[in-house]
Design a protein that fits this description.
The protein is mainly α and 220 residues long. Helix content is 73%, strand content 0%. α1 (6-29) runs antiparallel to α5, α3 (52-71) runs antiparallel to α4 (82-99) and α5 (108-132) packs across α8 (185-205). The radius of gyration is 18 Å and the shape is globular.
C-alpha cells in the first residue's frame, strides 16, 4: 500500500525547482529572449531595476492573491504553501543566473545551443515537479483556479495564460521603455519545445514516483 512521504516529496520539489531555475537561466542568458512564463517578470525587472528572481517573487505574490479572489472560501492554507515554494524558486533563479553568466556569448549558433539546452533542462525540471506532487508554483496554481472556475481544460487555459503574460510583457515594456525586452526567437523555441521535453523526460522520471511517495510495508 502506497503512503505519501512529505519529506521526500518536498525534497523532490526543491530539486525540481533548482533544475527549472537553471533551465530558465540558461534560456535567458542565451540572450535570445526568456521563457514565456518569465516574460512579465523580465519586463518588470527591466522597468524597476529588479533582479529576475525578485521580480518573479513579487509577481507571484499577486498570482496567489488572484487565486484567493477566484476561489474565495475554497482558498485554503495549503494554497499559501505556494509562497515559500516560489520564494525558494526565485532565489534559485537569481543564483542560476549568476552561475550561468560565464556562458553568455554573442556567437549566434552557441546562443541557439544554449537556448536548446536550457529548454531541455527546464523540461526535466517540470517533469520532476509533476512526479514529486508536493505543491505547485503560483503560475500553475492560478491556471488551476481559472480552469476550476470556468470548467475549461487546464492545458487550454495554460496556453492562454502564457500568451497573456507575453502580451502584457510586450505592451508594458513598449509603453515604459519604448522597446520590447525579453521576447525573441528563444521565447518561441521554448514555447514550442518545452512540452515535448517534459513528455520525453517523463518516461524516466515517472519511475521515481515510488521514491517520492514511499511504501508502507505490510507484514503478515
Amino acid at each position: 500500500m502506497k503512503k505519501k512521504n512529505p519529506v521526500r516529496r518536498y525534497a523532490g520539489f526543491c530539486v525540481a525547482s533548482f533544475i527549472m531555475a537553471m533551465g530558465i537561466a540558461l534560456v535567458t542568458n542565451a540572450n535570445l529572449g526568456t521563457t514565456p512564463i518569465t516574460s512579465l517578470p523580465f519586463a518588470l525587472g527591466a522597468i524597476f531595476s529588479l533582479s529576475l528572481g525578485a521580480a518573479t517573487f513579487l509577481l507571484n505574490i499577486l498570482l496567489v492573491a488572484a487565486q484567493k479572489l477566484l476561489l474565495w472560501k475554497e482558498f485554503s492554507v495549503l494554497h499559501l504553501l505556494q509562497l515559500p515554494a516560489v520564494l525558494m524558486f526565485s532565489v534559485f533563479i537569481d543564483l542560476c543566473m549568476w552561475l550561468t553568466r560565464p556562458l553568455i556569448t554573442d556567437v549566434y549558433p552557441l546562443q541557439i545551443l544554449l537556448c536548446l539546452v536550457g529548454c531541455a533542462v527546464l523540461g526535466l525540471g517540470v517533469s520532476l515537479e509533476i512526479v514529486s506532487d508536493a505543491t505547485v508554483l503560483p503560475g500553475e496554481g492560478v491556471v488551476i483556479a481559472i480552469a476550476y472556475r470556468t470548467r475549461k481544460i487546464f492545458g487550454n487555459i495554460k496556453v492562454l495564460f502564457d500568451l497573456s503574460l507575453v502580451a502584457v510583457a510586450a505592451g508594458l515594456a513598449f509603453a515604459v521603455l519604448h522597446t520590447v525586452v525579453g521576447l525573441r526567437e528563444g521565447t518561441v523555441i521554448v514555447a514550442v519545445l518545452t512540452g515535448f521535453c517534459v513528455r520525453f523526460f517523463s518516461r524516466w522520471t515517472r519511475h521515481l514516483t515510488p521514491f517520492f511517495h514511499g511504501r508502507k510495508l505490510i507484514r503478515h
